[in-house]
Amino acid sequence: MPIALYRIDDRLIHGQVVVGWGQPLELGFIVLVDDEVAGSEWEQELYRMGVPPEMAVHFATVDEAIAGLDGYERKSAPGIVLVGDIGTMQRLVTGANGRIRTVNVGGVHHVPGRTGRLRYVYLTAPEEQALRDIAAQGVDVTAQDVPSARPVPLEELLHSTVGV
After folding, report:
1. Terminus of the chain with fewer CB atoms < 10 Å: N or C?
2. 75-104: per-residue pLDDT in tens?
3. Are 136 and 97 in contact (CB under 8 A)?
């Protein structure tokens, strides 16, 4: 089965990913791509606690995830590749050489210096440019917090404004 979703969500594994996306997509696994978490056993244990036992969780650096894409695509159940920030997704997309066709911006939350675009997406100018760069590689970039919501195309996302 193919990867069902490539998602950017700064909260990484949490209820919206596991239940909100996991159940409708009938996920069998999550690949959490984060160079630091991949090297931290205690952080991995914390994230595993938020996932039901029937759903596998794999932790990978960006390079390991790129090398493992073919294997993830061959798994019998669909999965999510999850990253915590736009820069990590940009590295993953670039390294995947055209194998990633869609990216979901699911949660990039407010911190000082970011502009509100949607209630769940706040971006800096460099993050906006990184999303444009991802799209320039032939990737369909949309924002969508839950499966029942309408996917917001990248250009609409970048021209939206919400308050803090």
Report:
1. C
2. 999 999 999 999 999 999 999 999 999 999
3. no
